[in-house]
């Protein structure tokens, strides 16, 4: 299953309209924007590895569920934030794992199979290769009952959409729209 299909499945079947969804820099943000743009989506521009820290900050300031969509490269670059995840009941961390840094040239991540070793910082861990597996799991119920939850989604390593356009919204306008969504304006 490709990354955009995983993102689309989450945005249509699991993420509710009042939830916050954060998307890592590069192709993940582009594919999320293309799949289903909404005011509650935050598209990271640059700063690979810092999305989990942003998620933790939002989780401490908001009662909303926070979905953090990271690539495996970005996930491993943000390991310093993992111990803080234990206290974030509203975080659902989705790692879209293709074993490479796609948007920087496709370099291999030799330790991407070790996502499971980081699961000790979360209350629940799931691993999926196909979005159809979501229906046959306890994931939906777990997302309702609280986290932190780590979801490791295996994706085809050549699955990114090279034709996916960069989003055409001004970064400052995007931030302001997202800020208003978070505080409920």
Q: Number of DSSP helices?
A: 7
What is the mean pLDDT?
82
As a percent range, the share of helical residues equals 25-40%
Regarding CATH, which class?
Alpha Beta
Count of individual domains: 1
Q: Quick one: how many beta strands?
A: 8
Distance between the termini: 37 Å
The named CATH superfamily: Thiamin diphosphate (ThDP)-binding fold, Pyr/PP domains
Classify the fold: give the CATH topology. Rossmann fold
Biggest sheet: strand arrangement = 2-1-3-4-8-7
Label the overall shape.
globular
Strand content: 15-25%
Low-confidence segments, ≥5 residues, pLDDT <50?
none
Description:
With 185 residues, the protein is α/β, with parallel strands linked by helices. The chain has a single domain (3-183), classed as 3-Layer(aba) Sandwich (Rossmann fold), CATH 3.40.50.970. 34% of the residues lie in helices and 19% in strands. Strands 2-1-3-4-8-7 form a 6-stranded parallel beta sheet, sandwiched between helices. Strands 5-6 form a two-stranded antiparallel ribbon. It starts with a helix and ends with a helix. The model has no long low-confidence stretch (mean pLDDT 82).
Kindly summarize this structure in a few lines.
By secondary structure, the protein is of the alpha/beta class. The protein is 34% helix and 19% strand.
């Amino acid at each position: 299953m490709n990354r955009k299909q995983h993102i689309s499945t989450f945005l249509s079947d699991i993420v509710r309209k009042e939830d916050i969804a954060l998307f890592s820099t590069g192709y993940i943000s582009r594919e999320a924007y293309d799949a289903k743009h909404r005011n509650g989506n935050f598209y990271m521009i640059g700063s690979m590895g810092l999305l989990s820290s942003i998620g933790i900050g939002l989780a401490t300031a908001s009662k909303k569920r926070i979905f953090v969509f990271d690539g495996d490269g970005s996930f491993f670059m943000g390991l310093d934030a993992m111990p803080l995840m234990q206290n974030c009941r509203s975080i659902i961390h989705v790692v879209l794992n293709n074993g490479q840094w796609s948007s920087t040239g496709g370099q291999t991540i030799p330790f991407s199979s070790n996502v499971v070793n980081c699961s000790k910082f979360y209350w629940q861990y799931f691993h999926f290769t196909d979005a159809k597996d979501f229906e046959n799991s306890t994931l939906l119920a777990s997302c309702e009952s609280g986290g932190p939850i780590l979801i490791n989604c295996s994706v085809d390593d050549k699955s990114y959409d090279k034709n996916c356009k960069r989003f055409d919204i001004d970064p400052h306008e995007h931030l302001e729209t997202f800020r208003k969504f978070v505080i409920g304006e």
